[in-house]
Amino acid sequence: MSDTPALQLQDIHLKLASQAGDVNILKGINLEIHRGETIAIVGPSGSGKSSMMMVIAGLERSTSGRVMISGKDVTNFSEDELALFRRDHIGIVFQDFHLVPTMTALENVSIPLEFANTPNAYVKAKEQLEAVGLGHRLEHYPSQLSGGEQQRVALARAFAAQPDLLLADEPTGNLDGETGEKVMDLLFNRHKAQNNTLLLITHDPKLAEKCDRTIHVQDGRISDHNLKEVAAS
Ligand SMILES: Nc1ncnc2c1ncn2[C@@H]1O[C@H](COP(=O)(O)OP(=O)(O)OP(=O)(O)O)[C@@H](O)[C@H]1O
């Protein structure tokens, strides 16, 4: 296994314009995550967790700083380069599923594989759906699926291309406790099966406990608490 970190953030700042003036959202984030780690990102509402994840995913461009993924500096990638890099290396799961409503479960999972010219995209998508227990729902549209099932489709889609980095932003936030637990078990099982790196934003302490490490974000910074953890380790 290579020693190259899965993810490095160096002095990331994010400033966005709002009607009330510029807002400093991220204020110098430094972070290094190793391959295969599971990381919980916790912190108060509005502290910048989702913004940090958007910067990592290349869906938001930082104002300054550097983003390295698997040793590749993606900071100055064009939008097209970022889209290709995301397709090949990053899986993302959102709280509200983000499935395409006019596509079946099978199509939702296979479409990114087809874009990547992956051979046997449908067969691979079917395998991913079977791995999350949805082999009997392949032809169902999102509106015909429960919230838990929709999130399982989103998991199948995120894992389909075997990404190096899996980002999940409160993936159980819209689900009831029992369904959320099942989705979470699947998320960890799929992570284990593929041995990718998992970053998970959560407000649930039980979930954070399941991860190797917890990163605390406070007011756009990684809080002192983490620095003490690092110093003690
Ligand atoms: N497009 C934007 N323009 C201006 N400010 C924004 C924008 N997007 C987010 N913010 C602000 O940035 C801050 C961080 O938001 P972010 O969504 O990253 O927080 P969070 O920690 O993920 O919160 P939550 O736990 O509630 O999801 C908030 O104060 C938010 O209002």
From TrEMBL:
Alphabetical UniProt keywords: ATP-binding, Cell inner membrane, Cell membrane, Membrane, Nucleotide-binding, Transport
Molecular-function GO term, any one: ATP hydrolysis activity
ABC transporter domain boundaries: 7-230
A Pfam family per the record: ABC_tran
Superkingdom field: Bacteria
Alphabetical list of PANTHER family matching this protein: IMPORT ATP-BINDING PROTEIN (PTHR24220)
Family: Belongs to the ABC transporter superfamily. Macrolide exporter (TC 3.A.1.122) family.
Record-given protein name: Putative transporter subunit: ATP-binding component of ABC superfamily
A GO CC term attached to the entry: plasma membrane
InterPro entries, A to Z: AAA+_ATPase (IPR003593), ABC_transporter-like_ATP-bd (IPR003439), ABC_transporter-like_CS (IPR017871), ABC_transpr_LolD-like (IPR015854), MacB-like_ATP-bd (IPR017911), P-loop_NTPase (IPR027417)
Gene: ybbA
